Amino acid sequence: MSLWTPELLTGQPKSVGLLRNFVGGEFVESGSTFAKVSPVTGEQIFDVCEADESAVDAAVQAAQAALKGPWGRLSEQERAVVLRRVADGLERRFEDLVAAEVGDTGKSISQARTLDIPRGAANFRAFADFATTAATESYTTVLPDGRRALNYAVRKPVGVVAIVVPWNLPLLLLTWKVAPALACGNAVVVKPSEETPASATVLAEVMAEAGVPAGVFNLVHGFGPSSAGEYLTRHPSVDAITFTGESATGTAIAKVAADRVKSVSFELGGKNAGLIFADADLDAAVEGSVRSVFTNGGQVCLCTERLYVERPIFTEFAERLAQRASELTYGWPADEATMNMPLISKQHRDKVLSYYDLARSEGAEVLTGGGVPSFGDARDGGCYVQPTVVTGLPQDARATTEEIFGPICHIAPFDTEDEAYALANDSEYGLAATVWTRDVGRAHRAGPALDVGIVWINTWFLRDLRTPFGGMKLSGVGREGGTHSLSFYSEPTNVCIELT
Ligand SMILES: NC(=O)C1=CN([C@@H]2O[C@H](COP(=O)(O)OP(=O)(O)OC[C@H]3O[C@@H](n4cnc5c(N)ncnc54)[C@H](O)[C@@H]3O)[C@@H](O)[C@H]2O)C=CC1
Ligand SMILES: O=C(O)/C=C/C=C(\O)C(=O)O
Fold first, then answer.
1. Is residue 447 domain-shared with residue 324, that is, in the same domain?
2. CA 246–ligand 1 middle distance (angstroms)
3. CA angle 44, 49, 51 (to 5 degrees)
4. What is the domain-level CATH number for residue 301?
5. Which domain, by its residues, includes 405?
6. Are both 260 and 309 inside the same structural domain?
7. Residue 462: inside a domain, yes or no?
8. 53 touches 223 (CB < 8 A)
9. Is residue 417 a contact partner of residue 349, using CB atoms and an 8 Å limit?
10. Is 491 a catalytic residue?
């Protein structure tokens, strides 16, 4: 019987499925299991096999062996054919992936259908294209004595890549790294979040169905410290580590990686600012901010948690945003009209609610939300919080400086363009910013003025997969996307031929 039943959408499945690790092309069980519960109801939906140190070692060895087999001899074009088969497979398994993703996260079926799952297939198609069309460097060299040479670089795989990802956009973020890693000829061992083991398991099934050679894609389930995440990242045969998640976890992984000088790519946290200028299209700025603050329950590293609004429109903007936040509909994930989703876990809900309390104790005025909704049904066992808008905090309050990762924003006024950039830049993080203005000159000034990796003007989370993606300061190390991903997941060897 399929594990990926529509019952997962309710958070109340009739039976609890077993999710296994995928090593060397086989699904394997390990000694212990842990429970995965639904964020919608708090009921257990899966038993998950936790990979112990020997299971992680077997996965890394399977990856090493795969690099020596047929996979290591394929051309870029041949690998691209395999990647496109994976994309086709993800599309064939679309409804299974929706059930898996919604079951694990409680996100709305409409978001899973329009964002999370389509981006899985899109990532594989995009990197099949990028890897087969990207140029490599070439120089004709002329020396002072008249000798000439041709230099050109060839791209080679890095080797075994460890991929560690979080729970907020599970399939999207996993495939964003698996696709370029495989396009460049590497073999991977992936460690999804303990909170979201399901869509990675469907991806493993798709890999097998698409004929990806055994050992090229390996999946280990488990936790971070003293579990699969740590065993994987400190494994001596892992050549590179790519990670998305909390900045503190990035620090822990960087320390482990330093011992063997492994290359790392980190997409970390954010405390992203939105700047609303008085000349903006106010309707668009309000609706855009509703998206940027509340999408995925505020659980996207790109979400806006700090809004700065030019003083003449401050009161109107704040009232309108709070009104729209209060109108966001609750519903079961399977209801297309549902806009709010639960947070991922009780632990994360406790963290977010502690920030709601902290904001109040630091002097915030709560314009809407600030608590927990009540349903009178099984969702009361879940992890819901109210979308929340606050104002009145100083710039250095903890609630306005620390990443909360929930459906909350703080709104503050500003008076000049320079002040707006200074407030936005006054953060340990530097991931993304959103600017709402009709002034084209200001739109072009914002990019250079803001100390972040991504600036959106009059939009948010509009993605072109060729563009550099990543953050400054505590928000990350390196960039992925397009040729930036190809650079991380491959090693260039320069060839110099003297021309006679
Ligand atoms: N992209 C972002 O900005 C994200 C930020 N967060 C923030 O992080 C907080 C904690 O969420 P978590 O999912 O626990 O994030 P996390 O950063 O602890 O976990 C992300 C992934 O790293 C793994 N991991 C954790 N510690 C590790 C270690 N020492 N070595 C190797 N792997 C390790 C986890 O098992 C998971 O697969 C959230 O409350 C949220 O504020 C969470 C997810 C994404
Ligand atoms: O690649 C994207 O489009 C989205 C990335 C989002 C994150 O990295 C995150 O939320 O952690």
1. yes
2. 5
3. 140
4. 3.40.309.10
5. 273-457
6. no
7. no
8. no
9. no
10. no
Task: Say how many Å lie between the CA of residue 73 and the centre of ligand 2.
Answer: 32
The residues lining ligand 1, judged by C-beta closer than 6 Å to any ligand atom, are 164-168, 191, 193-194, 223-225, 229-230, 233, 244-246, 249, 252-253, 268-269, 301, 348, 351, 403, 405
State pLDDT tens for residues 425-440: 999 999 999 999 999 9
361 and 489 in a single domain? The answer is no
Residues 302 and 225 in one domain: no
Instruction: Tell me whether residue 310 is in a domain.
Output: yes
CA-wise closest residue to 455 among 431, 483, 489:
431
1 in a domain, yes or no? no
Report the C-alpha gap between 155 and 375 in whole angstroms. Answer: 56
φ, ψ for residue 388 (rounded to 5)? -135, 135
Q: Whose CA is nearest to atom 34 of ligand 1?
A: 224
Q: Which residue from 123, 172, 173 has its CB within 8 A of the most atoms of ligand 2, so it is best to mutate?
A: 173
In a domain, 464, yes or no: no
Which numbered ligand comes closest to the C-alpha of 165? Answer: 1
Q: What amino acid occupies position 430? A: G
Number of neighbours of residue 249 by Cβ within 10 angstroms: 20
Handedness of CA 403, 406, 408, 413 (dihedral sign): positive
pLDDT of residue 1: 73
Q: Say if strands 263-267 and 240-244 run parallel, antiparallel, or are unpaired.
A: parallel
Contact 405, 348 (CB under 8 A): yes
CA of residue 117 to ligand 2 center, whole Å: 14
The rounded distance, in Å, linking the Cα atoms of 73 and 175 is 23
Q: What pTM value is reported for the model?
A: 0.98
Spell out, as residue ranges, where the chain has pLDDT lower than 50.
none
Q: How many domains does the chain have?
A: 2
Are both 112 and 250 inside the same structural domain? yes
242 and 292 fall within a common domain = no
88 and 204 fall within a common domain? yes
Helix, strand counts (H, E) of the chain = 17, 23
pLDDT of residue 500: 85
pLDDT at 301: 98
CATH code: domain of residue 189: 3.40.605.10
